[in-house]
Amino acid sequence: MSDAAASRPPGSSTAELVDLLDLEPLEVNLFRGRNPPESWPFRTRVFGGQVLAQALVAAQRTVDIAAHSLHAYFLLAGDPAAPILYEVERVRDGRSFATRRTVAIQHGRPIFIMSVSFHREEPGLDHQLDLEGPVPAPQDVPGIHDLADSVLAGLPEPVRNYWLRPRPIELKPIGLGERHAVPRRRVWFRAAQALPDDPALHRAVLAYATDMTLLEATTVVHGTSVLGSRIQAASLDHALWLHRPFRADGWLLYVQDSPSASGARGLARGLIYDQAGRLVASVAQEGLIRPVGEAI
Length: 296
Fold this sequence. Notes:
- Keywords: Hydrolase.
- By secondary structure, the chain is of the alpha+beta class.
- 17% of the residues lie in helices and 36% in strands.
- α3 packs antiparallel against α6 (199-210).
- The N and C termini lie far apart (48 Å).
- 39% of the residues are buried.
């Protein structure tokens, strides 16, 4: 194990995440996914990022070139007590591109659908939208357990409990607990322990992580959270574009914003950069952010 891996927090469940993403083949184009241990967060329903990542793994098992984009809809809340079946339709296999459609099924009903496009690597034009303004390096941002007690004490209990739970992804939110004047937030993240050298696995782990914090961008200017009791929240759809090679066990900066929230729905976007400033992925998601209880 490298020094960097050894310095990461214990009990991070990264090996369990790798195991979670190793789907069981049942038949041609049919796979079964397990759910995580009860100690993990999101146990009242299946975490959307888990279904997203497992569905991507299922699609990747049927093609020999790399995924470059996916577009998904969350249809029903997943049951954490039941396994999930993933059925892959081989829509198209071309010389440069391939397309797959994955349906996640529980109790005889589809709970999630996703289309994935794959592209054989080839040369082409290259540009990117660079980061705006200075960003603290990940080593200069305190981890959750390194935050001052005063910061943690100021967080609502559900939010504090969420951040303090062990998880397979290490998160370092910038300015956690601060009131934001604009709907933007930034989070450093990486797999909490080193991953095997399998690019397909790194893409699946990234997909998993993209659903962890993005919807918070829709509520941050309102002084509330999708994790609290005043908002009924759920991911409705999710899109991910993979631009350049990366490692999901190296620090990645998730720059998030929300251009609009209305009618109990919020739109969030994310740009993901590696430490060298390379834009490696882009994300978009619409979610339910329905006020409950007191008016906001």
